[in-house]
Structures are given as structure tokens and as C-alpha cells.
Design brief:
- Chains A, B: InterPro entries: FAD-bd_oxidored_4_C, FAD-bd_PCMH, FAD-bd_PCMH-like_sf, FAD-bd_PCMH_sub2, FAD-linked_Oxase-like_C, FAD-linked_OxidoTrans_Type4, Oxid_FAD_bind_N, Vanillyl_alc_oxidase_C-sub2.
- 2 copies of one chain form a homodimer.
- By secondary structure, chain A is α+β, with helices and mostly antiparallel strands.
- Among the domains of chain A are: about 120 residues, Uridine Diphospho-n-acetylenolpyruvylglucosamine Reductase, domain 3, CATH 3.30.465; about 190 residues, Vanillyl-alcohol Oxidase, Chain A, domain 3 (3-Layer(aba) Sandwich).
- Chain A has 14 helices and 18 strands.
- In chain A, strand 17 and strand 18 form a beta hairpin.
- In chain A, helix 9 packs across helix 11.
- Chain A is globular.
- The first copy, chain A, starts with about 40 loop residues before the first helix and ends in a 12-residue tail after the last helix.
- In chain A, about 60% of the residues are buried.
Chain lengths: ~500, ~500
Amino acid sequence: MSEREPVGDHLPDGPPVVVEPEGRPFGGSTGPAELHPSDPDAAGRAVLAELSRVLGADQVRTDPDTVRPYVHDEAEWAEHGTPLCLVRARGTADVAAVVAACARHRVPVVARGAGTGLSGGANAVEGCVLLSLERMTAIREISAGERLAVVEPGVVNDDLRAACAAQGLWYPPDPASAPWSTIGGNVATNAGGLCCVKYGVTRDYVLALEVVTADGEVVRVGRRTAKGVAGYDLAGLMVGSEGTLGVITEVTVKLRPARPAAPRTVVGFFDSLADCGAAVAAVTERGLQPAVFELVDRECLAAVNRWRNAGLPEGAAALLLAQTDLPEPAAAAEADAILAAFTEHGATDAMASTDPTEADALFAARRMAYPALEQLGMGMLTEDVCVPRTRMAQMLARIEEIGRRLDVRIATVAHAGDGNLHPLMLTPHDDPAARDRTRAAFDEIISAAVELGGTVTGEHGVGLLKRDGMERELGPRVVAMQRAVKAALDPHGILNPGKAV
Amino acid sequence: MSEREPVGDHLPDGPPVVVEPEGRPFGGSTGPAELHPSDPDAAGRAVLAELSRVLGADQVRTDPDTVRPYVHDEAEWAEHGTPLCLVRARGTADVAAVVAACARHRVPVVARGAGTGLSGGANAVEGCVLLSLERMTAIREISAGERLAVVEPGVVNDDLRAACAAQGLWYPPDPASAPWSTIGGNVATNAGGLCCVKYGVTRDYVLALEVVTADGEVVRVGRRTAKGVAGYDLAGLMVGSEGTLGVITEVTVKLRPARPAAPRTVVGFFDSLADCGAAVAAVTERGLQPAVFELVDRECLAAVNRWRNAGLPEGAAALLLAQTDLPEPAAAAEADAILAAFTEHGATDAMASTDPTEADALFAARRMAYPALEQLGMGMLTEDVCVPRTRMAQMLARIEEIGRRLDVRIATVAHAGDGNLHPLMLTPHDDPAARDRTRAAFDEIISAAVELGGTVTGEHGVGLLKRDGMERELGPRVVAMQRAVKAALDPHGILNPGKAV
């Protein structure tokens, strides 16, 4: 959810273009990748009839051209099944009607927002009702007195942020997909982003949810108050559950006061990954708290140079980018301290800047990394491992070693301050052997992250691509607990089956 | 958990003195309030035999003098049952052995820390094994590089905070019970405190837990990494679950860098609750973020005056106390802005101070409120309602009205910035009619909080005292979801049965 970058002109205007999976997809069991609605069985026919009666026939779409853009998210390596139909809900009542009908007839229902996910979490499962929340776009309330907002799930992240900013308020979670991804999808995947190194992830901002449960009932979990401990934290449990425990129909989020406008930016290039990791560790150990702390590796730098002739140092192993947003003069002091940590650990071309234009230019390498890599015209598989902060340099070295040994080109950006790395594996199209090597590299990177005490997914979600990795990470007992919770809240297994757990 | 104040010399030195409940207790079904171990039935005898064999007979205490201090927490109105025995675990293996034996024989197990809770959550249920974690006091790791600490559950909050401070780190959650309460208990109840208005509650700091599940297995949930979305947030689910989903045997918490030492303090007295509420609202609406923002009402002020001849304004309806901890000069600007919000809304005797001694004196009214009220020699029942911030003045007015109408003396302190109020109902001993009126006031306050969109418990937990209120707040469907989760993770209902859900 968090690392969808601007990769082409089509993205702001509509749902993603379908990319056919090549070769054997990851994920296993969602069925054949046909792009027209499946031939419904008796249960499917009953659901179609019931939904047409309750919602109106025009709300229950089965025509391939309409349905096609909704059958998968942006995880091009994840498979998808063929849906029974598509419903674009107009409100909670539509969602409740869909889930109730699916519950009665034991038909799976897959809820989705903008489809910007990178793990296949929103992909159609065979014979499902695809339930799009993208039309539920009302911002119901923004309250400075309560420091909260109440929104429908289809509100786009950037739209909420803009509406909050207009009132001097700030909704921090800022996944790279923010111009397109929806709050509902952000909540379903517990999206992160650049700010979370200082300000936390989506879960840290969810106060309350309206949810349609697996039996089609509408409930409210969580609270409007700043604090509350009445009962288990079901709202927190729903966050990151990828539509497998309920369908989110309203979200109440905490807000912060708007920040001062002009952050200070610090950059440094490093000749070795070890130096770079030491600099990151020094920033943390010295109690500094950058509001953004990113890493761009040599493959990305080279791609940006090739694409835009950017003149970035070709010999550098990595670039670190940090921003501080403290009030002045504390910001100046923090920027100086970050710069010192960089230079003491061997940074070249290190500098700090307060000029917004210059800061923007400095961040260009980070912002342009994905589109520059896209120019290579290769298939891209994005990883999302997260390791303990002090292990980041080790993890980067492991990724480089895996890429070299398996002959897979890997470019990495990372939320350095969080230890969250996004190695992008670049694979030539129509090269099955290369594809197999990439799959092997994907697995080895996951294993390395788990070995280093990390997690297989820092912010993108389990979806289909990380199910095996999650089981490796959590072990059978915790997986059994996860499944017990799933069975308790979705006893017939109709909610996004086969995903996440 | 959060509002246990220094109420007597006995508290720092040992477990709380037993206070006999008078009249009909709240909570209903934990059995007779005998203070010697129950006559065990066959299952109980089997558990005693098994634990004596596995742990050693000296670890399984049934002698009344040893067991008595452990049978209840500090909720003097909550009932408790008679335990089968007491085990003071020395480590995870002891906990696993106890839970496994209890699981085999379907005997309840009640885990507890320091017993400073205020809702009866740690009270013995009839025939249970009382499992004290107070001896598991190791601080296993404090890492500046990872900004985390790993501790056993019996570590006292203040001890962890001191150990962190020695390394330039800070563990923010600061319940008033911090000198005695344990991290395990803080996690089990999701404790709050003064700092949470700016820095969040215990849940916001829990990264990972080692937990003994209801079948006696040891699992790890959560993660050491800064971010992670692999599977449902079971660690978050355990936080605040009051020992009903598992027994916590190790806690990994996030830390922050230590704060600058000297905060600025702002105080103001208000003649009307409405003005006071407007001042609180103004602080929030203007985007100010005090690190502490407390309210002390007229009953508390009068009690402090009586006890210590403190010379506080007798006519004042309430005192507001705020602290800002921004770096200077931003702190000075924020203090000025808070002071302006106070004076613009009618504060008298309003002032700001940077002098630590003066700040301490200003906070004395807050700190001395509980012991001053204790001097009255009456029974005390503490409420913990939390309302939306903008409703605080209304809630205060409702509390005053309820007290007047039902002839119950109520003194209120509040975490004003959070809308979390702690009305203390003062009841003469040996006056059953007064006790009935207090019970009625307790219920009416809960109803008023729910009516105002609030919660029945902001930070103390449900325990026994808030079970009815919780059901009123959440409604039957959400309660059913809570119970489904409970049944999924504790199918035989042996973990702290009758509490929380």
C-alpha cells in the first residue's frame, strides 16, 4: 500500500491497467486468472439475483469491461481469480446487503479501495463478489476541538490530508500511494509512509471504525474519545486485517495540529553500506528524531542518472536523506547533529538546507527512483522487509549478496530510520529462468529478514505474496491463534478468503 | 491502574492492606469474600498436587497469611472470591506450568502484578490459582540503538523509567501508580497517566509480548522492528485484555529519547466549570499540545486547603494545570499561548512559571488531592469516564448535578486534555443508605458519559466494576464479538473468568 509510486500517466485518472501475470504466480489458490466473470454456480446465481433485487440490477456489474480493472491490485506477481460480479457500494447499506447475501449463500466477498496494494490483498478470489468502496468518498466531519476526522472509506488519502490542512490540522500517515490510495485501504493494510519514522503508522491514528461484520451486521468499534479501555481493542484488530475480519464502512481518525511549514533537509552520500548503516545507527543512538529518514541505493541512483542525467555520484553505495521538523532553532541544532552523524561516518557530499527548492531537488533522487527504474522496461517485484534498526546495514549487504549470487538485479529504497527496506527485483520479461531466479531471491530476502529478527512485511501487508513468509516468521502456534481469531469473527470464511492469514 | 495515588505509608513497602467490602459489592459472580483458600474440589486437588510436584511444594502457597494480601486489588467496592492457592512465578516456565495444569483441570487462573488496579480486574475468582508475576523483575535489555526495552512483567514502572533515563531514554506511560504498579499490569490494563495527553498510552509503546496462552504454550506476538504488518495485531489485542486472553511473561516496549529537563508550567483558577471547559477547548482548537493538562475541582481544592492550609482560592470551581515540554523558545511561546487561552476564558490567578520549585508548588494541589481526600476518612469509589474533549465541561456539570441531587459528595480530578475524568465518590462508612446513593451516582455518571459519546473507562479497565457499563457502551453485537474473540483464544474460559468481557 505504501510504496506505489507515480509510474505512469494512467494512474491518477483511473484504476490500474491490468498486467497479465507471467509464469507461475505466487499465492497458490485463488483460481484461474480469467478476466471475465465466472460461470456462477447455484450459490452465485442466488447472490446475483438477491443483489439485483436489493440494490438494483444496474449496481451488480458482470460485464467484463467494467469488472476487469477491479480484479487485482498492483502486485503484478500475485494471481487473482475470476469474480462473480462487481458492486460499487454507495453507502453502508449497500455493503451490508452484499455481505449479508454472501453470508447466506457462502459466497466470498473481497472488499477493495483504489487497488494500489502491492501484496495482492485486494485480488479477486474465484467466484467472489468484488465490493469496491471507492464511491464512498464523503468526509463527514473534521473537528479541531476533538482533533479527529470521520470519513467514508473511499476518501483518497491526499484528499483527507488537504481537507485537514485547510483547518490547520494534519493527518500524518503518508504512504507513497497517497495521491490515489484510500483511507479504507490504508486502514485495511495499516499503511505506513515517510512520516511514520517519527509520527507512527495508520494504526496509531485510527480511533473508531464502522464495520460490516461477516454476517452483514453494522457495528461500531473503537471510540471518539482520546482514551478508552472498554473491552478488547477490536478497532486495532481490524487495522491491517486486509478485509478478512469485516468490511470497513467509516473511519474515525485522530489528527494532529499542522506542523510548521519549512523543514530542514540533510543529505549525505556514502561509499559503503556499512558506513551508511553506522550513520543511521548514530542518528538513532544520539536521540535525534528526523521526521523523514530515507535511503536510496546505488542501483536507484544509477537509474536516476541514466533517466535524467542527474549527476548523482556514481560511486556512492547509498544516499541518506533526512528532514527535521522541530521548531527553530531546535531544527537547526538537530540538522547539524544529523549532518555530523553523516560526516563522522564517512559521508561525502553531505549538506543541510532550509531552502524548499533545494530540499526538493535533494529529494528528487528518492522521488524519481521508481519511475527511473520503470524506464528499464522490466518486470518489478517489490519487497517490504523490515529489520531491527541496527541490522539495516547487514540486511542491505545480504540483499546485495543475494542479487549478485542469483544474478538478479535489485534496486533498494528504504525507510532507513525504521529499518524498512523495499528491494525492487527487476526481471526481464519473457525470461522464465530469470523469473525463477527472482522468485528465489524473493524467498531468500524474506529468510534473511527473519534471520535478522525482522518481519516479512513492514507496511505493504501479507496479501497473497507474503503468506508463506508470514508463517515462517510467526511460527505455527501464532498462526493458529491468528486463524482462531479469523474463525471467531468470520466463521464461514467468506471475507477475503485465502488472504493475510 | 492509573490513578492510584500515594494514600498512606504502607503502599511503597508491600502489597495493599486488605479493605473489607461493605454491603453488596459490584460485579456479581466471583463468589464469597472469604480470605482463606477454599476447600478444593477434585479438580482443585489435582492442580495443587500437580503444581506441588512440578514447582515444589513451597512454591504453592495456601496459608491464609501469605495468600490474603493477594486476593484483591485496590477497588474496594469490587468483590473477590477465595483462591485455591497462590503461586509467585519465578519465570516463564512457572507460568506455563501453572496455566497448563489449570487448563488440564479447568481451574481458573488469575494473573496479577502489584494489585494497584481500581476496577477489580486482579481480584481472585472462586477456586482460582492466583498467579503473581511480581517476582519476575528482570530488565533484560535497554537498547538506545533500537529504542526499546525488554522486561519481565513484574518490573515496576518507575524502575523501568529510571533505568531508561540512565541511558538517555524515556518510557512515557506514567500512571499515578508508577511507583508501585508493574509493566505487566500496565500492559494488561493499557494504563494511561499524565503524559498520555501528548505521548499516548501503554498500547502505543508495546512492540512485542511473550505470552502464555490458555493451553499453557509460550508464544511471542508482535515484533522488535519499528514497523510490521505480518498478521493480525495480537500484541495490541493482548494490551488491555486484563489477563483474559493470555498471561504476559515478557514485554518489549518502544522508548523515546529523553526530553529536555525543564518544562514550563501554566496554571489558572476558574470560577465556573463552563469557563474552564472553554479554556480547555481553546487550547485544543488552537493546536497547542501540552505534555500535561490536568484539572482539579472545588472539592479537591477545599480538601487540600483543609489538610494543608494551602490557601488555594476557595471560590474557584476548578484549577487547570498545564505543562509544555517543547524546546525553547517554542516552549515559552506555547506557555504564553496556553496562558492567553486561560485568561481569555476568565481564569483568575493565572500564571506561567519556569522555576522547578514553583512549578512543583503549583502542582501540589493536584498531587495532594487524593491524600487530602483520604484524610476525610470516608470510603472512596473512583470513576474513570472519558468523554469527547469538547464535552468535558458538560460532563463536569452533570457530575455536580448528580452529586447534588443524590446527596453524594464527589471530588473530581481530570486529565483535562484527554476528557478523562476521575470523579471520586466519598461515602461515609457504615451508612448503607449513603452506599446505595453512591452506587446510584456511579451508574448515573456512567450513563451520562455514554450519552455524551464517551466511554465508561478511559484508563482503569473494566475489571468487575465496569462490566455492566461496558455492555451499555458497546451494545450487544460488539460484546458478542468480544466474547467470540475470548472464546477463540481461551476456549475453556480459564483465564481470569468473569473479568473484562
